[in-house]
UniProtKB/TrEMBL annotation:
This is Transcriptional regulatory protein. PROSITE patterns: HTH_ARAC_FAMILY_2 (PS01124). InterPro entries: AraC-bd, Homeodomain-like_sf, HTH-like, HTH_AraC, RmlC-like_jellyroll. Keywords: DNA-binding, Transcription, Transcription regulation. Gene3D superfamilies: Homeodomain-like (1.10.10.60), Jelly Rolls (2.60.120.10). The lineage of its organism: Bacteria, Bacillati, Bacillota, Bacilli, Lactobacillales. Residues 182-280, 294-392 form the HTH araC/xylS-type domain. It comes from Secundilactobacillus similis DSM 23365 = JCM 2765. GO terms for molecular function: DNA-binding transcription factor activity; sequence-specific DNA binding. The keyword Transcription applies. The keyword Calcium does not apply. It comes from the Bacteria.
């Protein structure tokens, strides 16, 4: 298995891909759905009723409070019970959001080492259900506003879903599907960054190359080479949003031995050169640079619940206090203390709106040593006190 950083796994067939896109819909399903592939990773969040999910022709029972993560190498079909419709949120996310929500190299390595043991279904507690439903409803509402700019909200929702899959109860799965063609497709997806070949795949699974080729076409409609290039080019498309990665580095990460082959395959799929696509991302403000300001801001967001000071942050990241102040002001338009309060109040707001915690308890969770300070900062940022907003929401 290849341990190249970063680790990604998905299949790419969409021509309308955007590296930071997310679509979310609320559905009430009363009839059997036709089987289909998704061209992106997709979450199904069941909020009411029961349904049978056929996953690669395996029946799996789902009920309210369960969340399933579907990957593009899985065929899905929903079969609700007669006269018993189900309600769910369907969240489709791009690979770019996967990368942005997991920028820690250690997380990539852990994901890679455990990829074959990934568990796609979890059951979440009632408190988390209530919060997630509210979060999804608010995301849909925000996307319907005239401004239509929800990039940060997209990232927040994906990050929260990732968190749930790391912390909530796993639901047991039935035995593996005996159709080994699904295993071939899965192997290709997880090993696309290495020099995987049709011959290697046939050897590993004890089949002929013809058997492998026919099996992949049967279940996906694509040949081995088509699938391999699809996954590699979508990987590259997502990585192009990170400005500090060179084109040659991206080609190497995605498994291309030759930069010329990478250029050829990219233009074949995207109908433009990698550099032109990167310029397009810059035009649409979807280019991310791992600058000092970004690194400092991400660290502050991850530790804002703690009693952190600017001196502690500077020491931890090996910067001077002046450098921290300058980079934050340049990158976020705020110095340390105002940005810390903004992060704390942003993360506290869902608890105010959807949890049963008291305001005093939320203040402590948000990192404030006293409730008055929390209320003062909350009102300055949201123009309403936590108690007032909770009453209005109710």
């Amino acid at each position: 298995m290849n341990y190249t950083y970063p680790y990604v796994s998905t299949n790419y067939v969409s021509g309308q891909y955007r590296p930071q896109s997310l679509t979310i819909v609320s559905q009430k399903i009363s009839q059997v759905q036709p089987p289909h592939f998704s061209d992106e990773a997709e979450y199904l969040i069941v909020t009411a009723g029961e349904v049978t999910l056929l996953l690669n022709n395996q029946p799996i029972s789902l009920s309210a409070g369960e969340v399933v993560l579907l990957m593009p190498f899985q065929m899905q079909q929903l079969k609700p019970e007669p006269d018993n419709p189900i309600e769910l949120f369907r969240v489709r996310l791009s690979l770019g959001l996967v990368l942005l929500s997991s920028i820690d190299e250690a997380q990539y390595t852990k994901a890679l080492q455990n990829s074959n043991r990934f568990h796609p279904i979890i059951r979440i507690k009632q408190t988390e259900q209530d919060f997630l439903i509210h979060f999804c409803q608010e995301t849909i509402r925000q996307k319907q506003l005239p401004t239509g700019r929800t990039s940060s909200l997209n990232l927040s929702l994906v990050s929260y879903l990732f968190h749930l899959f790391q912390t909530e109860t796993q639901v047991p799965l039935p035995d593996q599907n005996p159709d080994t063609a699904w295993q071939w497709l899965r192997y290709l997806q997880y090993h696309h960054q290495s020099a995987v070949t049709l011959t290697e795949l046939a050897t590993i699974f004890g089949k002929t190359e013809h058997d492998i080729q026919q099996g992949l076409v049967r279940i996906s409609g694509f040949t081995f080479n088509q699938l391999l290039n699809q996954v590699r080019i979508r990987n590259a498309t997502a990585l192009l949003q990170f400005s500090e990665l060179t084109i040659r580095q991206i080609a190497n990460i995605c498994g291309f031995k030759s930069i010329g082959t990478f250029y050829y395959q990219f233009e074949l799929v995207r109908h433009q050169r990698p550099l032109d696509y990167r310029k397009q991302l810059r035009t649409h403000d979807q280019l991310v640079g791992l600058s000092d300001g970004w690194v400092i801001g991400v660290y502050l967001l991850e530790h804002c619940y703690e009693p952190i000071t600017v001196e502690q942050l500077a020491q931890q990241l090996n910067f001077s206090v002046d450098t921290v102040t300058d980079r934050l002001k340049q990158h976020f338009g705020l110095t340390f203390k105002p940005l810390l309060n903004l992060f704390r109040c942003e993360l506290a707001r869902p608890l105010v709106l959807a949890s049963t915690l008291t305001i005093d308890q939320i203040a402590i969770k948000a990192g404030y040593h006293d409730t008055a300070s929390f209320v003062r900062n909350y009102r300055r940022i949201w123009q309403v006190t936590p108690s007032q907003e909770r009453r209005e929401q109710s």
